[in-house]
């Protein structure tokens, strides 16, 4: 029997009166509790999601799930390597290197980055001492042969050789670097700082020269590079004093194009075609913004978005809900914003948006995973609500 849920004012496929309609086909699958990040492998047409059941070592349960983006069914699970005490070198952040067919996994609580073979799951390397006080934040892959990792408290970004697994250099920055994104076309690496309200632009084709630009953010956490428009989107969590927002910046000049209001705890951002997606962790919603007009066209309620990836013309959102349930939700835009545009690995978010030193308080992983459900959205007459019919 289908389960029918009613969500007041949830805008799935319903646009605000002033905007053009954007509709979404929605599919969900239940994940184990304490899911964190997601990335997409074009080489294998797979999604990878990290799971870890605790925020401080020792970690007793952790895995990297490979899922089919079409069915959301689990293809396989890779367990991280075990440490000397029998606990796992737990997986939080993740980035896919399709050139070398590897997974780069942020073992944040071990201050290490681990590398695994996508095909076999074999552990290839662990690179120690990447974080400071068990805190690095994001991983981004440069297909020409490097991987970048942000060290929040070290005020540095590590540049690692993707084949030798050696740290090539530490790129010094002014502040606590959080999200990372890389544009292969220009060789531009971008980040933002949690504490100093700056956009960081690194020219990797010019000796990793660093530029800092002031931006109107409060606890910025993630970035996305729009290669089609040569713009950077910065998601900022906000605070009691400053509302959450999305700041649109020209990375060549630092000019702020627009400051777009979002909702509490804007933690993650990505772009697909002509639509920007911002995950609002505390508000429990997904802001959808037209990349051409920079106006919000939808706010989709539900879950606590912790990370976003785009692939195959769809947007994939991972929840992190302490106490569960945690879902992987696929949104496929129809009737607008369907041009897939350039895609690539998105930012990762191993930690709690309230405190960069701590992941969201974890609970014991659930036993159910890979259960796909279909969601049908229809208006409920007379009460201003939407009926969500969930079948699975």
Largest sheet: 7 strands, antiparallel
Shape: globular
Report the β-strand fraction as a percent range: over 45%
Structural class of the secondary elements?
mainly beta
Compute the number of strand runs: 31
Rg for CA atoms: 19 Å
Give average pLDDT, whole number. Answer: 83
Strand order of the largest sheet: 1-31-30-2-29-28-27
Which residues form runs of ≥5 with pLDDT under 50? 1-11, 13-19, 340-392
By DSSP (H or I, 4+ residues per run), the number of helices equals: 0
**Percent helix range:** under 10%
CA distance, first residue to last residue: 8 Å
Characterization of the model:
- The chain is an all-beta fold and 392 residues long.
- It contains no helices and 31 strands.
- It has strands at 3-8, 23-31, 35-41, 46-52, 62-67, 74-78, 93-97, 102-107, 112-117, 123-127, 136-142, 146-151, 156-161, 167-172, 177-183, 188-193, 198-203, 209-214, 220-226, 231-236, 245-249, 256-261, 266-272, 275-280, 285-290, 296-301, 305-311, 314-319, 326-334, 371-380, 385-391.
- It has a seven-stranded antiparallel β-sheet with strand order 1-31-30-2-29-28-27, with no helix packed on it.
- A hairpin with an 8-residue loop joins strand 20 and strand 21 (245-249).
- The model is unreliable at 1-11, 13-19 and 340-392 (pLDDT under 50).
């Amino acid at each position: 029997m289908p389960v029918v849920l009613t969500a007041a004012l949830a805008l799935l496929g319903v646009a605000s009166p002033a905007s053009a309609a954007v509709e979404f086909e929605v599919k969900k699958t239940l994940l184990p509790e304490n899911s964190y990040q997601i990335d997409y492998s074009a080489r294998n047409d797979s999604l990878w999601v990290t799971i870890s059941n605790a925020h401080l070592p020792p970690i007793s349960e952790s895995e990297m799930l490979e899922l089919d983006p079409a069915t959301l069914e689990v293809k396989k699970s890779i367990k991280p390597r075990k440490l000397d005490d029998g606990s796992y070198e737990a997986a939080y952040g993740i980035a896919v290197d399709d050139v070398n067919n590897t997974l780069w996994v942020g073992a944040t609580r071990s201050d290490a980055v681990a590398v695994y073979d996508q095909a076999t799951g074999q552990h290839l390397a662990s690179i120690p001492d990447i974080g400071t006080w068990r805190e690095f934040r994001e991983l981004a892959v440069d297909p020409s042969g490097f991987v970048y990792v942000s060290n929040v408290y070290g005020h540095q970004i590590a540049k690692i050789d993707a084949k030798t697994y050696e740290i090539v250099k530490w790129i010094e920055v002014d502040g606590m670097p959080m999200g990372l994104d890389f544009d292969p076309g220009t060789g531009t690496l971008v980040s933002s700082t949690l504490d100093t309200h700056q956009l960081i632009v690194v020219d990797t084709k010019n000796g990793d020269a660093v530029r800092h630009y002031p931006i109107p953010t409060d606890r910025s956490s993630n970035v996305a590079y729009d290669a089609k428009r040569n713009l950077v989107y910065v998601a900022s969590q906000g605070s009691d004093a400053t509302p959450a927002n999305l700041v649109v910046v020209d990375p060549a000049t630092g000019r702020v194009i627009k400051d777009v209001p979002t909702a509490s705890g804007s933690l993650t951002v990505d772009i697909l075609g002509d639509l920007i997606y911002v995950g609002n962790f505390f508000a429990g919603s997904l802001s959808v913004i037209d990349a051409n007009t920079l106006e919000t066209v939808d706010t989709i309620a539900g879950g606590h978005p912790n990370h976003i990836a785009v692939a195959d013309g769809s947007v994939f959102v991972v929840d992190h809900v302490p106490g569960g349930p945690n879902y992987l939700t696929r949104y496929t835009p129809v009737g607008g914003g369907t041009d897939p545009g350039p895609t690539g690995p998105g930012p990762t978010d191993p930690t709690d948006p309230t405190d960069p030193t701590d992941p969201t308080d974890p609970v014991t992983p659930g036993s159910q995973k890979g259960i796909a459900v279909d969601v049908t959205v229809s208006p409920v007459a007379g009460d201003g609500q939407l009926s969500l019919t969930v079948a699975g």
